Each structure stands twice: as C-alpha cells, then as structure tokens.
Amino acid sequence: MEDLSCCPVLCRLTPLLLLIQLLTGGSLEEFSVLGPSDPIVAVLGGDAVLSCRVFPAMNAEDMELRWFRSKFSEAVFIYQNREEQSEQQMGCYAGRASLVRDLLSQGEAAILIRQVQVSDNGLYTCFFRKGDFHKEASLELKLAGVGSAPEMRITGPEEDGVRVLCTVSGWFPKPQVQWRDGSGEKFLAFSDHTQDAEGLFSVEAALVVRDRSVGNVTCSVLNPVLGQEKAMAIFIPEPFFPQASPWKVAFLVSLTVLMLLVLGAGCYIRREHSIKLREMEEKRHLWQAKEEARQTKEKALQDKAELQAQLNWRKDVYLAASTWKPEASFSETSVFKGLST
Hints:
Elements: H1 7-23, E1 32-34, E2 40-43, E3 48-55, E4 64-68, E5 75-80, E6 83-85, E7 97-99, E8 108-113, E9 122-130, E10 133-144, E11 151-158, E12 161-171, E13 176-181, E14 186-187, E15 190-195, E16 201-209, E17 216-222, E18 229-235, H2 246-340
Parallel strand pairs: 2-10
Antiparallel strand pairs: 1-3, 3-8, 4-5, 4-9, 5-6, 7-8, 9-10, 11-12, 12-16, 13-14, 13-17, 15-16, 17-18
Signal peptide: 1-25
Pfam family, one: V-set
Protein name: Ig-like domain-containing protein
C-alpha cells in the first residue's frame, strides 16, 4: 500500500540516524516522528491507511498516540493507556477510524479510515507523547473519484454551426474536460462546474462546431490525481448544420453596400463642411483686414484734421499779433504829439 512504501527507506536510514543521535549525545528516551513525504492517494468510497513511525524504532504501545486535523482538538483517532479513546474523537470519524495494532509494537502508528469521503481530503498530523516529551509529523491525504462517463447530445444549430453539449457528474477533484475532432485536434471551449452537497463535481461543457467536415467530436474527462480518463464521441451529420439562405446572402450584400454608401456620404459631408469652414475663415480674415484699413484711414484723416486745426490756430495767432503792433505805435505817436502841443 502507498503508506507503507517508505518502510524500506526508513529501515535503511534507522542505523544511520541512531548513530548520529548517539554521537551527538542525544538521549535514547527522545525520538523523532517520520511520515511519508508524498501524499497518500485514496479513492472515494474506499479505505485509506495513514501511517507514521517513531525514530529510533521502539515499542510504542505505552505511548500516547493522536491523529488530528488542523487543530489538536480535532481528533481523528486517540490511543492512550493502551486503549482507544473515543471521548474527544470527532463524530465524523467515529466507527470509521481504527488502529492497526500489529505495527504499534514496531513504533509505527497506522490507522485505517474506512469509506473515505470528500471531507477527509487534506492534511493530518501524527502526534506521539512519552512522558513529557512529544513529537509530531504531518502528511497529506489526497482523495480522488471517477464519476460518470460523458453524456453527449446535439442541442441544435447555433450561429453558423452546431452546438454540442457534454455533461459528467460525481468527479473529484474538478476534472479536466477536453474536446477533440476525429484527427485528435483539440478545440478551445468553455465549461461550467458545480459541487453537490457531498463535494462532488458536475461539469457541463459546450462546443459550437462550424466545420462541416469534422464528422466526429470527442469529449474526454480526466481525473488529474488518478490520471484516469473517460471519453465519448458523437457524429454530427452534415444536414444538422444550418443551410445558407439566398435571402441571407442578399441581405448581407445589401447591408455591405448600404454601409459603403453611408461611409461615402459621411466622407462627402465632412469634406463639404471642411470647405465651408475654410471659406468662412478666409472671409473673416478679409473682413478683419478691411476693418483694420478703414480704422487706419480714419485715424489718418483725424490726425490730418487735428494738424490743420493746429496750423490754422497758429496762423490766426500770428496774424493777430502782426495787426496789433502797428496800432500800438500809432497811438503812442499821437500821444506824444498832443503833449508837445
């Protein structure tokens, strides 16, 4: 059995480890616990043997032995005072877990779990205690179950092909589903899985076959732990494929032409819009240039008028000044003449 396969290796290592312990001054009252390095594989519904051993080999009938799950209190099996103790044992293991007594005198603690189920899958710890000294080791129990063979059926035409459905149930762990054609070529497909109350997997995988020349398609289901596979093939007759309708072809052609016309119209409208925008931009620039020229001309005329007004004012001042000086001279002469008379 798988759990006892490591015995020859342990037997060969025992003298070497004992020598190392003696050389390092270790006490013979101390020990270590060894378990299998590889997981123990069991089939659902069958029996599983979990085994570990103390090193160096010694009679363990007077030791305390406990197998538990993730917590010390989650006891799968308890052996103490040379008797099996059921008070602290988990209810799901009552009546299913028992000790293989013939091996205990050789320092090996092997328990038999009957009718293993999905909840038994996982890690276990083997615990030995002698007086105040104790050691433990862990191991993994991997459960696997091969369920029903694939059931295949054609569910009808879909899009431009035929839809084929493959269903299985009662597998553990989740199986791998693969589709192949008659030549062994693999198809890419999607699958949906569910778990029932017992933890078993059901899978539903669908495939749409579009190639009329495929003929047979095979649905294979593989258990990744056991490496066991179940497969089923189905033949797809050519009449099952949807026939191409002339109306459908005409519709596709008309739709393509319509899309091209819409695309062309869109390009034309976009081009005309761009031309109009460019013309409006040119007109705006021309109007701005004319407006700037008009403002420049008005400013020049205004400056010219202001300059002419300034010149006229200066001219009037000058003329006024020229007219006033002679009059003043004439008056003074008249006054002098009057005084002298």
